[in-house]
Amino acid sequence: MRALVTGGTGFLGGALARRLHAQGDTVTVLGRNSASGEPLQKVGIGFVWGDLADAEIVNRACADQDIVFHCGANVAPWGRYQELFLTNVTGTKNVIQGCMDQQVARLVHVSTPSIYFGNQDRLQVGEYDRLPSKLVNAYIATKFQAEQAIDRAHRDGLPVITIRPRAIFGPGDTKLFPRVIRALEQKRLRMIGQGRNVQDFTYIDNVVDALLLCQRSPVTTLGKKYNITNGEPVLIWSKLQELCTKLGYEFPQRHLPLGIAFGAARLLEAVYLLLQLKGEPPLTCYTVSLLAKSMTLDISAARRDLGYEPRVTMDEGLDRFVAWWKRTRTG
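Structure (tokenized):
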């Protein structure tokens, strides 16, 4: 099978491209990171340099493909709306158009369960449960608009299936646990609230498994959306304490009351917006909610319709991440 992976030089896209290649598919990746594209080319994976916002490049990349996996996105939790819109919305529309023009047999779209997030506890959220009245940041808003574009395309006849993987981690991760580690190194991490909130995570190989199941799932799955997690919610602060122990960091002993944390985050966000400061504020409302609120997902639909079953447990995944992290730091 001929497969195109957008965002193929990123964490998820690269892992998927390598697995597709290993199972014998003819794989091409579309991405902006030439340095990450080079090792993929060395093992026989095609690399097309390009931006998702460039409709012509995307359209050409979709030519002669049997399936397109749309993993590319701007996942910054804080950023300019227009930049996020250009990649996440315009880019998705370009992928949709490319698939339609080139008559691609199936599109698999990677969305986010962050659209469920509303600064409050939510447990066992289903794919079609009520969404918050207000989406909490530009990343979430633009990913939701991308899903709406996907839904319209499906109504217009595009064979598409959407997954919403939660908190992807593992070897090669540059976003999730590395952000926590940087905060630990800089002595900036504080336990927010009571530390009893639970979260779902998903090991990278389990997400790739889900994507491969979408590759050949029944036609009855087209047009549908599927939550993907490890299926084992964890106390987030207990898990971070484990991470500290495994890496030799001191676990933060100081607590920050939730009300004070939200107040500080709102003030910092206002200052950054008013002064148009570059980078991300040291604390955002989204980060506060992630660290203090509970959110778990119902993955029964993925189990039933796709045959999805997480193979790598949270404990196994954390050990693999830690081993990889230590190797990369010791050379």
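The longest strand covers residues 26-31. DSSP finds twelve helices and 15 strands in the chain.
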